[in-house]
Specification:
It is a single chain. The chain is of the alpha/beta class and about 220 residues long. It is built from seven helices and nine strands; from the N terminus they run E-H-E-H-E-H-E-H-E-H-H-H-E-E-E-E. The strands form two sheets. The protein has a seven-stranded mixed sheet with strand order 2-1-3-4-5-8-9, with helices on both faces. Helix 3 links the parallel strand 3 and strand 4. The chain is globular, with a radius of gyration of 19 Å. The longest helix has 20 residues. Helix 3 runs parallel beside helix 4 and helix 6 crosses helix 7.
Length: about 220
């Protein structure tokens, strides 16, 4: 998506306090972006336990002539970065994985977060009947709208239950049973587990327009 938008030079930020997630995502992004002819021209590792210097990041991005920023960080940090960009009247494209894709970014970021693009296996702009039914039941039961964490949690328990049915409720052989359950209907889309236990499913591009999550129309 970044390459199709004509972005060839990007800066990557990484929250070191969530290294297992951040390192794997950024490595995969960098590899795919490189294959598409792109280049990572600056990196900005930081700790979310301390107040990041977003001014320094934007100075670094400007010096390296980055055309956009891949922000692998929590919602509050991405929102703070977006607000700093607004205050400086700088408007580099912000690209994010699923992690900051929560309603928190809307409440914290205000209009500054409009235009951020998330790559996610979940989108609220989903007309699938199974998804709409889940949203309705969740709202009725908990009195709050469901988010991706609620959907993922429900799906995780569902696939675990299917695997435990195969093992007769025993932990022995559970890993093999999880792989063997095959395609699951899912809530937002069907999915399967590969031999390593990773989820294979559709990916959606989502952006923020006027304080609302909407699907990206390419």
């Amino acid at each position: 998506y970044a390459a199709r938008r004509g972005l060839t030079k990007l800066c990557i930020i990484a929250d070191l306090d969530n290294a297992s997630y951040v390192d794997s995502f950024n490595a995969a992004f960098e590899q795919a972006f490189g294959h598409a002819g792109g280049e990572i021209v600056c990196r900005f590792p930081f700790s979310s336990n301390q107040e990041p210097d977003w001014e320094a990041l934007l100075d670094q991005a400007a010096t390296s002539r980055a055309q956009g920023i891949v922000a692998t960080a929590a919602a509050r940090d991405v929102a703070a970065l977006a607000q700093t960009m607004t205050a400086r009247n700088e408007h580099l494209p912000l690209l994010c994985p699923t992690w900051p894709y929560t309603r928190e970014i809307l409440s914290i970021g205000g209009r500054s977060v409009d235009g951020i693009v998330f790559a996610a296996s979940y989108t609220e702009a989903n007309d699938r009947p199974r998804f709409q039914e889940f949203l309705r039941h969740y709202q009725e039961r908990f009195g709050a709208p469901a988010n991706f964490a609620a959907v993922y949690a429900y799906e995780a328990v569902s696939v675990l239950a299917a695997a435990l049915t195969r093992t007769g409720g025993r932990a022995e052989g559970l890993a093999e049973a999880l792989v063997a359950v095959g395609e699951q209907p899912g809530i937002s889309s069907p999915f399967t587990l590969d031999a390593c236990g990773d989820v294979l499913r559709d990916t959606f591009l989502v952006t923020i327009v006027d304080g609302r999550f909407v699907a990206v129309r390419e």
